[in-house]
Write a structure and sequence with these properties.
340 residues, alpha/beta, eight-stranded mixed beta sheet, four-stranded mixed beta sheet, 17% strand
Length: 340
């Protein structure tokens, strides 16, 4: 018999939510391509550590090649750059009346829907802090917004049931009729986070630095202009107020939103982004093409220039390829794009 919940990608995000659901009594199957991680979960269970909670759960785990059966509810929790290959591998195991929930960064719902259909795709927005530490161990560092919604904005029995499930992980989880507004809001905030990842300093320290405030404000405004031109009403979350970065908004409002983000991030034990961790610790490619690439492409299609975002993508690639260091000097390179 197939498990009640399938978690495809048992790292920072999938490992955290799946462990909470397993502790709550749900039948959870974890799937991950890391053989050591899978072996550790099967042998010792999955351990959640950090300031939010400390616990371990016994659960089953498989590598993708070993999965069989049919699942009504699957959560895709892989990096955005792996979405296309992951949904291709996952699709055969999703029941005809089942659905896939994207617990990822970016607009991956479009990629998933192209493979299995929009009616079987659920949108979700997550902003909590977590990191994969070692096989069988995930660090849950800080609470953040958790939002779920149907792609067409309807309130259905299915989405209400999924909302109840999400509340078993975080009792503040939101059911929205505007999931695209949250996803585009996260793209603007995510672009800022990619900017902070050009340095070795913390998210809060970067956002608090007066020298770079104009850069972060301009970057968010650039992304939001593309989102608004796409017909999206952006939603706020965790101190990030998209309205503060819209065309015509005051610099004072933008700086106040950045101040709120500094406060939010100072409360989290996760001081640096997963982007920085990919670059500095895990030494692997980031999600930059999958997250920021669509912004540049959509901007071109709409005739909206995105020079800051495009340059940011280039600089992240420079770090990935060893051409530039993680340093304030690299952030200075991005700032050169701003008008003098």
């Amino acid at each position: 018999m197939a498990a009640e919940l399938l978690i495809w990608g048992a790292g920072a995000i999938g490992g955290t939510v799946g462990a909470y659901w397993r502790r709550a009594g749900h039948d959870v199957l974890f799937v991950d391509r890391d053989a050591d991680h899978v072996a550790a979960i099967n042998r010792d269970g999955l351990k959640i550590t950090g300031p939010i909670a400390e616990f371990s759960v016994k659960a089953a785990a498989l590598q993708p090649k070993d999965v069989t059966g049919s699942f009504e509810t699957a959560f895709l929790c892989v990096k955005a750059l792996d979405t296309a290959s992951a949904i291709a591998a996952l699709a055969p195991f999703v029941a005809a009346n089942g659905c896939v929930v994207s617990l990822q960064n970016g607009l991956n719902e479009n990629v998933i829907a192209a493979k299995i259909g929009a009616k079987r795709t659920i949108g979700a927005f997550i902003n909590f802090g977590a990191d994969y530490l070692s096989p069988g161990v995930v660090h849950y560092a800080g609470r953040g917004a958790v939002v779920i919604g149907e792609l067409d904005g309807k309130k259905t029995p299915r989405i209400e049931a999924l909302h109840r499930l999400m509340r078993e992980f975080d009792d503040r989880a939101i059911l929205t009729t505007n999931i695209w507004g949250y996803l585009w809001g996260k793209l603007a905030y995510g672009a800022i986070l990619f900017g902070t990842a050009l340095t070795n300093d913390s998210i809060a320290d970067c956002l608090a630095a007066p020298k770079y405030r104009p850069l972060f404000v301009a970057l968010a405004r650039e992304v939001e202009e593309v989102g608004v031109s796409s017909g999206v009403k952006l939603e706020s979350f965790d101190g990030f107020d998209p309205a503060a970065f819209l065309p015509g908004a005051s610099d004072a409002a933008a700086h106040a939103s950045l101040d709120d983000q500094v406060t939010h991030n100072r409360k989290s034990a996760k001081t640096h982004t997963g982007i920085w961790r990919d670059l500095a610790v895990r030494k692997r490619r980031t999600e930059v093409d999958a997250q920021l690439g669509p912004i540049v492409e959509t901007g071109k299609a709409q005739g909206i220039p995105t020079p800051i975002t495009a340059r940011l993508v280039e600089l992240i690639h420079d770090i990935e390829d060893g051409r530039r260091p993680l340093a304030w000097e690299t952030l200075d390179e991005l700032a050169k794009v701003l008008p003098r």
